Amino acid sequence: MRFEPSRYRSEQISDLLAQAVPREAQRIHGSRDYFQLIRNGTLYEIVPVLRVTSWKDARNVTDMSPLHVQYVKNHIATKPELPGQIRLAKHWCKAQKIYGAESHLSGISGHVLDLLLIHYGSFDAFITAAASWTEETIIDIEHHHKDPKHALNAAKTHSPLILVDPLQPERNAAAALSPLLYKHLILAATAYLAKPTPEAFTYEPLSVTQLKRTFPQGLHAATLTPLPGKQDIAGARCKSAYEHLTRHIDLHGFDLLATGWEYQNTHALCYWVVASDELPRIAIHAGPPLTRPEDCARFSEKHSNTYTESGRIYAKEPRKHTSITTLLRELLQDRTTRERITHAELLI
Prior knowledge:
Layout: E1 2-3, H1 13-18, E2 26-28, E3 34-39, E4 42-46, E5 49-50, H2 65-78, H3 82-95, H4 110-120, H5 123-131, E6 137-139, H6 148-151, E7 161-163, H7 179-194, H8 208-214, E8 219-226, H9 231-251, E9 256-263, E10 268-274, E11 282-289, H10 293-302, E12 306-309, E13 312-318, H11 324-331, H12 335-338, E14 341-346
Parallel strand pairs: 1-5, 6-7
Antiparallel strand pairs: 2-3, 3-4, 8-10, 8-14, 9-10, 11-13, 12-13
Helix pairs in contact: 3-4, 4-5, 5-7
């Protein structure tokens, strides 16, 4: 819903909208509060924005949304096939699990896909281009800058995809895309070009059955139910808990062969694949080379059971956990995990 800035202040329009939406609408807190409403199984978002004609007048990033919509409509007017191509790209990205710019996903947003399809012209052209992307890709549709990377704020250019927003030339529209999912996009596009199949457009939720099929040995999995909150915050809490668990599995010496997680609306499914479920009771810690006597002395002060071998000092320490199952059970109940989730269950 658009409000005239001459009559309403940015900080009051959420409260004004609250008086107009149905009572069952849920208020979602953010940089500017908005509302969610479910009708006949469809989720609607009612967002208050100021009516602006330039990014310079925007008081919140959402104020630009109607201008972005109009920008896409202008291109559709000259390319009537564009909406179908955009929908195809979004469907494919969802199936490849790279769609969504929320903090717990760090993927590619719908707005970014709109711009990429406008830039490349079709789904096939987009996939072909993405398969050949290098470590860094820079796109400036409207040619705002001679050197986009140096013209933008340095904080917005950490993403390997730099996509200058055509209506906000100081903004990298793809700043949320993580290096991991950028690489996944390139690999998925390459695989699709090699073998285009309908299955590439079919979303398959992560499941224990699927994981057992892929990893018959060394698999461990758990579900995490987050504290109540809106979807992106709940997902971020699950992501933080998953990263805490993964970090400590590695710190305890287990050799991680594969790991991953997926947020599934009400909970997250996390998995870890290790080379061995059991570790020796004694852990060996490598110290500095003997050519650094002062460092060796400090190492000896920290470790009581040391020995030298092949020109280096080592220490023997008993492990607290030799079983990954025991470790995971403890981690799922520790304070850091419980600060983020309400329930955890070790499945495998």
